[in-house]
Design brief:
Helix content is 31%, strand content 23%. The chain is α/β, with parallel strands linked by helices. A six-stranded mixed sheet has the order 7-8-10-11-12-9.
Amino acid sequence: MSPYSLDTFITILETLAPPEGAAEWDNTGLLLQGSFLELSKVMLTLDLTPAVAEEACKKKCQAVVSYHPPIFEGLSELTESDPLQEGLLSLIRAGIHVYSPHTALDAADDGVSDWLAGCFAAKAIEPHEGSARIITLRTPLSLENLASSWSAYLKCPYLRISRPQGRARKVKTLGLCPGAGSSALAGVEVDAVLTGEMKHHDVLAWQRSGTAVILAEHGHTERPYLSLFKKRLENALPGLSVILSKKDKEPLELLIPHA
């Protein structure tokens, strides 16, 4: 198959992650237009760190699809003293394009949120605030069984759990959202919420309301989906080489002193 033009690549990418699904606050789309006219090799990563940028250059990629946007707030300068900007600068010099789908990919059909919802046998799944999903389970689960299923599905090494006040009860309804789900899940009435991370006072508020909280860490709710998205891109763009970054790593690990 002949290499793809940048316009063709973006058109196909946006059929998988329609831009209109992105949150208003997000910065999605083509964030860095490079110099390559044709694309034959593309890298997927959750975060565009300097190590990932160096990897993309070494592997002679023409574009990087970075799930999280490396440009989010207004930039007053571009300097290598900022680690994230250092990666962008190296890609600029190499002429490599950067596209970020972020919440557009969360909200899309068969996107990150639908993939997360696939962990559970559901009676009903309802979209909520784009990236969130509200699930009614076919069979209620104990909090322990719910957490065990979530951990196995994500293949994450640990979970953090806040148990609701009052008597323990089985979970019939749950809300989930990739990444940091506090705002997307705000106000929903469910037995448990599942997301990557949450502010301390939001956890306390859910606990007071009688809702369990299960946190897997931000990247653990998103990075595993990239393997599936790789296959979807390859099917949509036959002949395009799509590679997963080997340098893209979760920045946090669990350390229990004296354990």
